[in-house]
């Protein structure tokens, strides 16, 4: 599947450079640019790889970019690479949403985000809660409602909530009369839904736009 562009919207090569050949991935913090290139070279010819680093410490943030020579190669990498890389197309540098992926991924993974909690983990078995932090004062379920004053993009919202293990579906619903965003999220367990609500309620996505995340009735006994 290829993405068609209007001839009037710019040169073909520029469009490929800006929109179709650069992917954004989540990686182990131990990866070097050479490691990143080695993992993704099987999908096509790589123009460059870069790893996002902390400007103060120089340490990797566990995020990186891979730019291919052809859109088909980038698309293949997104579809075929391991799900743990959370690969998506990177936003063009010249758009208003510049560095959007960098902002929301790095914010979600920051340990200090919204109190004394653990960051998201690449592997579920290394994620845990402190029991004192999980006291819930409201009925819980495996289903969440997400509301925003800005509309959602299905793929990007899915990528955000898929950082919590157990995501079953993400359904973005559109109201033709308003510009607000609304989505229903469902996880395989209530524990995953609790964690997602705990981490993402009030989270700014994109920066400056806070999400409201609440539980939705899913028909199960919430006392469990």
UniProtKB/TrEMBL annotation:
Residues 21-95 form the RRM domain. It comes from the Eukaryota. InterPro entries: Nucleotide-bd_a/b_plait_sf, RBD_domain_sf, RBM45_RRM2, RBM45_RRM3, RRM_dom, SLIRP/GR-RBP-like. Keywords: RNA-binding. One of its GO terms (molecular function) is RNA binding. SMART domains: RRM. It holds the Pfam family RRM_1. Gene3D superfamilies: 3.30.70.330. This is RBM45 protein. It comes from Cardinalis cardinalis (Northern cardinal).
